[in-house]
Sequence to fold (157 residues):
Amino acid sequence: MKISKIAFVTFCFLALNFTTKAASNFSSVSTNRKTESVGSPTLTTNEKIKVLQMQLFSKMTIADYEKLKGRKLNFFERLSFKLSQRRAKKMLKYYEYGEGPTTLQKISWLLKGLLLGPIALLLGYLFLKDDDRELIKWIWFGFAGFAAIVVIILLTI
Fold:
């Protein structure tokens, strides 16, 4: 009984691993490029076409993809299709918003929100530019932690 569970888990792990490896080489559009003065990267005509193709692919349903393939997709192909769509959406986010904040910036604003609470929210909305709007979400997470700590302290008094 225990061996069959281990074999099943190993099979599932290998199957998912192979499908994600197949889906990982989705596009040859490089995400490591120099940006112009503020924000959006410069694209060549060929890369613009690839970005448009990725936009169409990310909005496609499984039924549409099955019509293009000419056959029904099995479970692993559906999973691979959804993973590829997710990766395409992440790549498209880069082209829409620029590279975005780093992990350290996210952690630092989370801690600021946790320690300073509403003051960090005010600072974030006043000083963060449109390019850094992702960081405001992390300030809100920190503020939620700050509010939870305040409520716990008030309940214990």
Summary: Confidence is low (pLDDT under 50) at residues 20-40. The chain has seven helices and no strands. Residues 5 and 89 are 35 Å apart (CA to CA). The helical segments are 2-24, 45-59, 62-69, 75-97, 103-116, 118-127, 133-156.
